[in-house]
Amino acid sequence: MTDRLKKRLVIGAWLGFVLAAIIFTVMPTAELDKSRAFGCYTTAKAAPILLDETGMHILQDEPDRVDFHLEEIRSRIVMTAEATLSLRPDGDRYTYHISTPPLEPKRSYFAPEGATGTFLDFVEPDGSRTSDLGNLRRFTKVTTDSSTLIYTKVAKEHCLPKP
After folding, report:
1. Which residues is 64 bridged to in the sheet?
2. Strand (E) positions, 6-117?
């Protein structure tokens, strides 16, 4: 075997290893039961979000609804909103803008073919990403000015219309 052939075999083996590592670390392991995340989530600087069997309800002045699902990707729980959600500064708060078709496409592994969305990570109290399906109490959303808002699960009354 020539040195040139040995070199090609080594390079090919490394490329195969790298490709396998990428495939096995990026692919989600399962679509999860989204009812585990149902409830009302709030943050101080943006509209509350209600997650229920009909979708993700963004409860701002002009309420909107998008579909969502949960995935496990790289040992963490991720919520995928099946639209692009941008959270833009609006005075001292932030306002959601929903785009379809999306401004920044992101492919969800379990969404219908061609669907895109926004990934929202569920996190632990210390801010680390969670892999515990029983601990879906807070998730993060990055704003267009690069701030990170943490949504926390609260009593459902916080998502009811005010009289």
Report:
1. 58
2. 28-32, 39-43, 46-52, 55-58, 64-66, 68-73, 76-81, 84-90, 93-99
